[in-house]
Amino acid sequence: MRNVTLCLLVRDDQISLGRKKKGFGEGNYNGYGGKPKDDESLEDAAIRELYEETAVVARTEHLKKRATLTFTFQYNPEWNQVVHVYELRSWRGEPAESDEMKPEWFSINAVPYERMWSADRHWMPLVLEGKYVTASFVYGKENEVLEMKVECS
What we know:
The chain is mostly beta strands. The chain has two helices and eight strands, in the order E-E-E-H-E-E-E-H-E-E. It has helices at about 40-55, 120-130, and strands at about 1-10, 15-20, 30, 65-75, 80-90, 100-105, 135-140, 145-150. Strands 1, 2, 3, 4, 5, 6, 7 and 8 form an eight-stranded mixed sheet that branches. The radius of gyration is 14 Å and the shape is globular. The relative contact order is 0.23.
């Protein structure tokens, strides 16, 4: 199972999410991130991917790990992944559109869960409340959540 990163840009009562323009999850809103390269750390990958997708400059010491999420796709096992979610409240620049993502700001009270992966509505509100989440989700043929286990501290 591959490890990937997800970075949530949060300021005041807003969150920046990007609409995925191509590839895995195309059309969905999501945080920013991706796979580490070779021997790159998860934190370094989160910062690099954030920059590649938004042109935002950040530092690893400002990342706060907020969740570890395991996703299993019964009909697409090559998609199976462990997602390491980081919150970021300090950075330079404003999120800009890239070839991969189109950033938008949303009120934390109006996150567009209906246009995101279906599991996001189960873990993201907990993270936005300041909790640490450990969760696992099993997706079915139509990318619907068949099973889930969500714990927080």
